[in-house]
């Protein structure tokens, strides 16, 4: 439930950033319109899934720490969130095994089931930034997830592979 609250907080923060970051166009030097095909795709337990509804990214800085979230929804209501700390750098890989201090994570919600990083999975969380501009970010991601509810019961897992994102930054 705590992860669900974090996910909701991230989504609200993303919305606030997206809607508060709009600037009036400079009439003397208008900026070119950047057209990208937004989207997030991944194999979830071997099934190709698209999270192209409201696919976008947002960054915020609090106490000199920058965090970025990449979000998207599927037509069936499933939600994926990809996040990490630190400035986005093209060519950089954020992974739970090599850069745990940057807190890379993948969260996935399907119906009432929430999943997040599974530290015991051999499929470690890995997020690679391929390109980043002031307006967009693209890259790849993969990782093993586990259902976030606690207790001594067997928790379901998800395997995220072949993840790709190309989204606008707000």
Describe, in plain words, how this protein is organized in 3D:
This protein has 170 residues and is mainly β. The two termini are 27 Å apart. It has one domain (2-20, 49-169). The longest helix has 19 residues, at 2-20. It has a seven-stranded mixed beta barrel with strand order 3-4-5-7-8-10-11. Helix content is 11%, strand content 48%. The chain has one helix and eleven strands, in the order αβββββββββββ. It has one helix at 2-20, and strands at 39-44, 47-50, 53-62, 65-73, 79-85, 93-95, 105-110, 113-117, 126-132, 136-147, 157-169. A hairpin with a 2-residue loop joins β7 (105-110) and β8.
Question: What's the structural blueprint in terms of helices and strands?
Answer:
Blueprint (H helix, E strand, L loop, with lengths): L1 H19 L18 E6 L2 E4 L2 E10 L2 E9 L5 E7 L7 E3 L9 E6 L2 E5 L8 E7 L3 E12 L9 E13 L1
Parallel strand pairs: 3-11
Antiparallel strand pairs: 1-2, 1-11, 3-4, 4-5, 5-7, 6-9, 7-8, 8-10, 9-10, 10-11
Uncertain segments of ≥5 residues (pLDDT<50)?
A: 1-27
Broad structural category:
mainly beta
Major beta-sheet overview: 7 strands, mixed, barrel
Mean pLDDT across all residues, rounded? 82
């Amino acid at each position: 439930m705590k992860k669900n609250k974090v996910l909701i907080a991230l989504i609200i923060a993303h919305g606030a950033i997206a809607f508060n970051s709009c600037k009036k166009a400079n009439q003397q030097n208008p900026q070119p319109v950047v057209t990208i095909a937004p989207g997030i795709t991944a194999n979830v337990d071997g099934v190709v899934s698209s999270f192209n509804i409201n696919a976008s990214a947002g960054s915020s800085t609090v106490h000199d720490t920058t965090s970025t979230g990449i979000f998207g929804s599927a037509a069936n209501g499933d939600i994926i969130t990809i996040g990490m700390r630190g400035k986005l750098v093209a060519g950089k890989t954020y992974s739970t095994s090599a850069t745990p201090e940057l807190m890379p994570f993948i969260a996935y919600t399907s119906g009432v089931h929430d999943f997040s990083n599974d530290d015991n999975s051999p499929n470690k969380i890995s997020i690679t930034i391929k390109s980043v501009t002031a307006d967009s970010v693209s890259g790849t991601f993969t990782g093993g997830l586990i259902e976030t509810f606690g207790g001594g019961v067997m928790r379901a897992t998800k395997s995220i592979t072949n993840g790709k994102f190309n989204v606008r930054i707000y």
